[in-house]
Amino acid sequence: MDKGNSSSYNMKVTEDWISAYYHMQGVESLFNFHSHQEYEIYFFHSGDCKYLINNRIYDLQPGDIILLDGMTLHKANPQVGGTYTRSMLHFSPTRLQEILSVLGLTNLLDPFQKLNNYLIRTGYDESGLFVDGKIKQIAGSLAQLDEEMQRSGKRNDLLEAEVKLELVQLLIKIYQMSQKELSHVTSKKSDKEIHAEEIASWINEHYIEKVSLDRVAAELNLSKYYVSHVFKEVTGFTVMEYLMGCRLNQVKYLLEIEPNQTLTEVSQATGFESVAHFSRYFKDKVGMTPSNYRKTKIGSTIPVKKEDHN
């Protein structure tokens, strides 16, 4: 991903529980279909870009805000050869919940937990400008924190507290904006977008089965050529890439919540033809073996079955 003229700051002094990326400019080339455990506020500034969240596709407009739960597969798909500008803020709901509980504001996370990856269309109104400015303010504070930490090796507790308060203020505004039902996008979709969503929905329902372009086309009464090309055109990746993304996301989920399942059981439950292929694919995409991934998520105290050393 080319960050271009971006401002990217990570709050290392607070255990990486919050990060901000303000006014990132460039071509989205390496940032693929993905998921993460942090909640995300995605602010779209300018350019020509569609955004895929699981099986829904949005044509983004300046001032659009997307609230993501992180774990749902998502990906930006800008126009080929074009650039666009966006800002992102990630934060750990677990860490933030502790702060909100003390303040008696635990419902501030409802938009992320209950609205199923929500899009708010602000048109850069007063609320949109507030969110834009607040992300910029938080990014600047994080940059200052990192600079002071690198220079002195000491934490600035006062500035850390300010960052937490800024985030709470941002979430209060987001919560207020999410209560307006008209904020949810209901614009008419093109036939290609409708078909791409139908393809994505079908894959989400059948990814643990044997899937081929021929089968998808037959099930949806579309031509194989059309399925292949319209999905690539609208989403930016192939049907098979989307299929494997769905499987990989479910693998991560099972590795974390089902510690007693062997790798063979996990691979079978997520549609992989063999545990060997599953292990190779996982390591290639995640950068570590499934066993090591499981250990990093749930610790090394969980008994590991013999065949899980892959």
How many domain modules? 2
Tell me, briefly, the overall form. globular
User: Which CATH C-level class of the largest domain is it?
Assistant: Mainly Beta
| Order of helical and strand elements | EEEEEEEEHHEHHHHHHHHH
Radius of gyration: 21 Å
The largest β sheet comes out as: 6 strands, antiparallel
Number of separate strands:
9
- Give the overall pLDDT as a whole number: 82
CATH superfamily of the largest domain: Regulatory protein AraC
Low-confidence stretches: 1-15, 181-186, 300-304
Describe the structure using short key phrases:
three-stranded antiparallel β-sheet; alpha+beta; 11 helices; 310 residues; disordered N terminus; Arc Repressor Mutant, subunit A; six-stranded antiparallel β-sheet; Jelly Rolls
What does the model show?
By secondary structure, the protein is of the alpha+beta class. It has two domains: 7-183, Jelly Rolls, CATH 2.60.120.280; 191-308, Arc Repressor Mutant, subunit A. 48% of the residues lie in helices and 17% in strands. Strands 1-2-8-3-6-9 form a six-stranded antiparallel β-sheet. A three-stranded antiparallel β-sheet has the order 5-4-7, with helices on one face. A hairpin with a 2-residue loop joins strand 4 (49-53) and strand 5 (56-59). It starts with 6 loop residues before the first strand and ends in a 12-residue tail after the last helix.
